[in-house]
Amino acid sequence: NAVIYRADYQPPAYWIDTVDLCFDLDPAKTRVLNKMKVRRNPQVAPQPLKLDGDELNLARVLVNGQGTSFKMEGDRLVLENLPEGDAPFDLEIFTTCAPAKNSKLMGLYTSNDSFFTQCEAEGFRRITYFLDRPDVMASYTVTLRADKQKYPVLLSNGNLVDQGDLDDGRHFAKWVDPHRKPSYLFALVAGQLVCREQKITSRSGNDHLLQVYVRAGDLDKTEHAMNSLIASVAWDEARFGLPLDLERFMIVATSDFNMGAMENKGLNIFNTKYVLASQATATDTDFMNIESVVGHEYFHNWSGNRVTCRDWFQLSLKEGLTVFRDQEFSQDLAGEASARAVKRIEDVRVLRTAQFPEDAGPMAHPVRPEQYLEINNFYTVTVYEKGAEVVRMQQTLVGREGFEKGLAQYFQRHDGQAVTCDDFAQAIADANPGSHLANNLEQFKRWYSQAGTPRVKATTRFENGTYEITLSQSCPPTPGQAAKEPFVIPVAWGLVGADGREVAGGMQVMTQATETIRVDGLASEPVPSLLRGFSAPVVLEWDATDAQLLALLEHDTDPFNRWEAAQRLGVRRMLDAIRGSGAITLDDAYLQAMRSILRHPKLDAAFKELVLTLPAETYVSEQLDEVDPQRVHAVRESLREQLASALAGDWAWAYEEHKENGAYRPDHVSAGRRALAGLALTHLCIAARSSGDTVWPGKAYQRFKDASNMTDRFNALSALVVSGHELSRPALDRFHGMFRGEALVLDKWFALQAGAPDRGGNVLPVVRSLMQHPDFNLRNPNRARSLIFSYCSANPGAFHRADAAGYVFWGDRVLELDGVNPQVAARLARAMDRWRKLAEPMRSAAREAIARVAAKPDLSNDVREVVTRALA
Ligand code: HT7
Ligand code: ZN
C-alpha cells in the first residue's frame, strides 16, 4: 500500500527461466500447480526470494522436490532457505483460486461460463506466486484440464503440442510458447467457443493460422475483425519489416473486460466491443475502432512483446509507440490524403478533449511517470495518446525514412529485452546522426519527464516586405513540477498569401524559449498557418483575427489547420457568449463560411462533418478559468440551434445528397457520407424544434425504422433524442425491442439516454431509473460505462447540477463499484478531476462529494489514489 518510485528500480534478485503450469479449471476452486526453474541473479547481492501473490490460497511449496520453510510478508511469499550459488533450482508451488468470485476481472475469472485471464499489469500474481514484473522473462509450458462438455475449447499462448481425454469427462490441452515472455503476457481461455479461421502466407513466405474465437451465435460478426487482423499482419511487414513470429495467432472475445483488449503473446483477449460487428449491429465508428484496436494489439507483438518494458514506469515505451503505430496503420488504410487528414483530426480531438485536461488536472503526470500507488491508474491518455505524439515528433525530427531506420535499430538492439523509454529515443537518434533529434536528444527527452501541456505563443509583424513570427514557449506547473525547462518543439508552418496561395513554409524546430521565423520579399502581409498537422502536442496561443481564420478555412493547403480555423471561430463565439450575457447571435460571416464548407463541391463529406461539428463542451471549458458546465452546455446548444436554423436549407440539401449510399460498406468515403447525413438530420430536427415543424422529426423516425444499417438507424434515433422530440420515446422503445439480445447494441441504448442533452434536470432521473432496468448490470464494465460513465464523465451539462444530485450519485456509484471492480471505480472517480475549475456552488459540492468518498476507510488503492490527488 505504499507509493512506488521510478528512481527505486532494482533489477530482480532471481531469474525464472522456465514455468510449467498445470491448471485444473473449476469456477469455484481452480487448482494451479506451478513448477519453475529459478536461479539467483549474480549481479544482485544474495537475498531471500520474495514472490508476489494476491488473493491466493497456498497449499504447498517445494524446493528441489523437498518441503521448505517460508513466511508471508503481506501478500508476498518469502523463501529464505534456498540453495546457495548461482545454479538453477526447482521451485514448485501449489495454490488454488476462485475464478467465479473474481469480480475485479484481473487474474483468472469467469464470464458467461467461460474462463479468461487478464494479467497486465499485475494480474498474474492472482493466478500463482511469481516475480510478477515485466523484466522477468520465462519460457512457459501450460497444461489445462477441464470438463470437456462445459469447456471444449482450451487455449493458452503458443503452440498446441498435446491434447486428449482424461477420466470423469475431463480433457486436457498442453501449450508451449516458443517465445520467452514476461508474466503479464500470459493468457488462458477455456469455454464453449467457436472460431473463424484463416490461413495466410506472409510476405516472407511463412504460413500462419489466424483464429477469432467468439460465443456460438456471434460467428457472423467476426469477418471484419479477421480482415483487420490480416491487414495488420501485412501492414507491419510492409511498413516496418516486422513479420509475424508465430505459427498460430488467436483473438478471443469476452463481454466482461476492464479495457479494450490485451496483447497476450499469440492469444489476444478482446472486449467484444472491439471484435463483433455486423452492418445491423455496429456503426461505422465501431468498424473503424475494431480495425484500429485489432491493429494495436497485433502491433504489440513487436512493440511490447518482443521488446518489452523494464518496469511499469516505462509503460509508454510500448503503449505510446503502439498507439502511434495503430494511428499510422489506420491512416495508411484510409488511403487518400484527405482521409488521412480526417483520421489525424480525430486523433487530435481525442488528445485535446481528454489528454489536455488530464495534463492540467490533479492526475497530471509525465509520459514516463515518476511514482504511482496503483499502476492501473496510469493506463492514461497521457501515457497512450501523448506518448504517441512524442513518438510522432521523433518521426518528424528524423523524417519518415529515418524513423523506419531507427525502429529497425531499436528492434535489432533490444529484441528479447525489457528496456526503457531512454533506450527507445537513443536507438532512433543513433540511427539518425546529425538529425534534430540526435542533436538535441537530452532536451527532447523532457517530453518524457515533464508533465503539462506546453503553450506556444505566436506574435507576428509585417514590415517592408518582411514577415516575422515570434514563437515563445512556456509550460504551466503541474503537481510536483513547479518549473519546466524548454522543450524541443517542431512547429510546421506556412504562409498563405492574400490571393490564397501558399507563399512560404517550413519546419521550425524550437529549442529555445523564444525563436523567430523570418520571411523576406513579400508583396503583402500573409496569413500564418502554424503547427500544421498538429506537429507538436501544444496549445498554440495565437490571437488571430476572424479575417485570418476565415482565410485559412478557405485556402489553407493544410487540412488540419483548415479544420482548426473553424474550431477557433466556433470557440471564440462560444467563449464570447459564455463570458458575456449567455446569448449571442451568430454573425453572417461565420454562417456563410460554414455554408460554403457544407456546400463545397470538392471537400470530402467526412471532413465537412468535422468542420461543422462545434467544439466539444469539455474543450471549451478548458479555455475558461472558472466553469459553469450548464452555461457552457446552454451556449453550445444555442449556437447549434442557430447553425441549424440559419442553414436549414443547406442541411436539407446535405441530407438528401448524402443519405443514399448503396449496399453497406464501412469504407471511409461512404462512412463520411453517412456521418454528414447524420449531422444534417440532427440539425434539421433541432431546427424543427424551434420552428414547430414536424416533417423532419417524422422523416427521422421513418429513417430510424427503415435503415439498412446501424449507423443510419442510430443517427436517426440520436437526432430524435438530441432534439428532444416526443418521437424519441417510441423510437427508443422500439430500438430496445429490436435488439434485446444484442449486448453491444443495448450499451448504445443506455449510453444515448445517459448522454442526452439535459432539459430541466431530466437526465439524472432517467439514469436512476435505467439502473433499475432488468438489462442493467453494474458488474459488467461495458454496461457500467454505457450508463454511469456516459452520464458522469461524458454529459457535463447534465452531471454538474447546482443541487449536487449528480455528485451524490457519482459518489454512491464510485463506492458501490469499488467493492466490485476497483479499476473501473477509479476510472469513474476521475469524472471529478477538474472540480477545482467549477463555479460555485458546484465547486464546494464537488469537494464535499470527493471528501465523502475519500473518507471511506477500506477504499481500494485505485480509488484512494485518485481521490487523494484530487483533494491535494
Ligand atoms: N496493454 C493492454 C492494457 C490492458 C490492461 C491494463 C490494466 C487492466 C486491464 C487491461 N486490459 C488491457 C491494452 C493495450 O494497450 O493494448
Ligand atoms: Zn496497447
UniProtKB/TrEMBL annotation:
Domain Peptidase M1 alanyl aminopeptidase C-terminal: from-to ranges: 546-872
GO molecular function, one term: alanyl aminopeptidase activity
Domain Aminopeptidase N-like N-terminal, chain residue ranges per copy: 21-185
InterPro entries per UniProt: Aminopeptidase_N-like_N, Aminopeptidase_N-like_N_sf, PepN_Ig-like_sf, Peptidase_M1, Peptidase_M1_dom, Peptidase_M1_pepN, Peptidase_M1_pepN_C, Peptidase_M1_pepN_C_sf
UniProt domain Peptidase M1 alanyl aminopeptidase Ig-like fold: residue ranges: 452-542
UniProt enzyme class: hydrolase
BP terms from Gene Ontology: proteolysis
The entry's keywords: Aminopeptidase, Hydrolase, Metal-binding, Metalloprotease, Protease, Zinc
Reactions performed catalytically: Release of an N-terminal amino acid, Xaa-|-Yaa- from a peptide, amide or arylamide. Xaa is preferably Ala, but may be most amino acids including Pro (slow action). When a terminal hydrophobic residue is followed by a prolyl residue, the two may be released as an intact Xaa-Pro dipeptide
Function: Aminopeptidase N is involved in the degradation of intracellular peptides generated by protein breakdown during normal growth as well as in response to nutrient starvation.
PANTHER family: PUROMYCIN-SENSITIVE AMINOPEPTIDASE
NCBIfam families linked: pepN_proteo
Recorded family membership: Belongs to the peptidase M1 family.
Name the record gives this protein: Aminopeptidase N
Gene name, Swiss-Prot/TrEMBL: pepN
